[in-house]
Amino acid sequence: MTPAPHLRLDTLVKRYGTQAAVDGISLDVARGECIALLGPSGCGKTTTLRLVAGFIAPDSGSILVNGRAIERDPPHRRSIGMVFQAYALFPHLTAAGNVAFGLEMRNLPRAERDSRVAEALATVGLAGLADRYPARMSGGQQQRVALARALIIRPDLLLLDEPLSNLDAGLRVEMREEIARLRAAAGITTLFVTHDQEEALALADRVAVMDRGQVVECATPEALTERPRHLFTARFLGARNVLHGRTEHGTFHAVGLPPIPDPRAAPTHLILRAARLLLLPQHAAPDTPLAAPARVTAATRLDDSIHYEVALGPHAIRVHRPSAEPAFAPGAHIVLAAPGDAMGWIESNEAPTGDPA
Question: DSSP character for 287?
Fold first, then answer.
C-alpha cells in the first residue's frame, strides 16, 4: 500500500486580476522527499512556494500536510522552515541571535535554546562565528545562518526560495553540496524553487518543471534528462536539441537530416543530447543511427569541455565535447554523429519555435 503523501497540493489556483499565477497545480511530496520547482521567470514557482508557506492565500484548492488542510492557517502555525533568496537575516542580531529567533518565539527555556543554537551552528560549520553580525559575514556564511535558522525549529517542511542565486559560481557548488548533506541528515521534506536546471537536477529527488502556472512534468532527474515526455521540458533543459519532423513507414524524416529508422510508432520530434553527440573528421563513416555532414559555426571552451554550435542543414545544433579531444575550429567541415543513447523521441502536435516544419 502506497503511503499517504506528507505534502499534497490539490488543484491550487492563485490569480492576480485576470492572470493566473498558479493555475490548478496538483503535486504529492513523500515524507523526506526533495522536490524542485523548476522553470523560467514568471512560471509560478515562487507563488507556489509562498502559498505553501502561508504568505498568500489560494483562491481555490487545498494544501495538506499529513492529511490536514493548512491553507487557511497563518504562517507561524504551519511548522515550516523557510530560507529566502536574500537570506532575510536580522542585521541587528548576531549569527546566534538570528538562529535562536524561532526558538524564542516558541518560548523554549534559555538553556535548551542555547544548546540547540550551538548545535545548529556547528552543523553548518559556523561554530566559531556565533557572535558575528551579518554585515561581517560572506554570502556563504549568511546562507549557512539562514539554513541553521530554518532547521533549528525542526519543521515539518523546509522551503527554499532560489537558495543559491546570490552566490558566486564556486561557492554555489559548495553550498549545493552542503544543502544536500544537511537535508539528507535531517530527513526533512523539502520544496525548493530554482531557475537553474543544474541545481535542480543535483539536489532534487524529483523535479517539477513549471510553465505558465502549471506543472508540465514531474519526474526524477534521470527520467527528465533521459526521457523527457514534453517539448517544453526538452527545450528548457538547455543541453537538448529539438528537431521537428514526421514519421512515415517506420522512418523519421526532418529537413536537413538523412532518414532515421525509428522503432517507435509515430514520433514528431527528435531530441539530441548535446553531451552525447560526436564530432568526427569530414570523411568519417560511423556506424550510428544518425550521421550527417555538418559545419562548425562556433566553439567556446568552458572549463573541461568545448561547447560547439554546428550547422546541420537549417538547424543550429549544440554539441558538448571534452576539451581533451582534438578541437575543431569554426568553419571546419565535419560529420555529426548521434549514437543511440544521444537520441530521444517525443510525439506532440506542437512544433518548437523556429524549427523548420
Answer: -
Is residue 118 within a helix (H) or strand (E), and if so which, with residue range?
A: helix 110-123
Residue 251 near residue 239, CB atoms below 8 Å: no
Distance CA 237, CA 246 (A): 23
Predicted local confidence at residue 184, as pLDDT: 82
User: CA-CA distance, 210 to 214, in Å (whole number)?
Assistant: 5
**Model confidence over 85-100: pLDDT tens digits?**
777 889 999 999 999 9
CATH class of 7-228: alpha beta
Torsion of CA 93, 97, 98, 101, to 10 degrees: -120
End-to-end CA distance of the chain: 47
Q: Which CATH number fits domain 239-346: 1.25.40.10, 3.40.50.880, 3.40.50.1100, 2.40.50.100?
A: 2.40.50.100
Q: What is the model's pTM?
A: 0.86
Residue 98 CA, distance from chain mean position: 28
How confident is the model over 253-300, as pLDDT tens digits?
999 999 998 766 788 999 999 999 999 999 899 999 999 999 999 999
Q: Where are the domains of the chain?
A: 7-228, 239-346
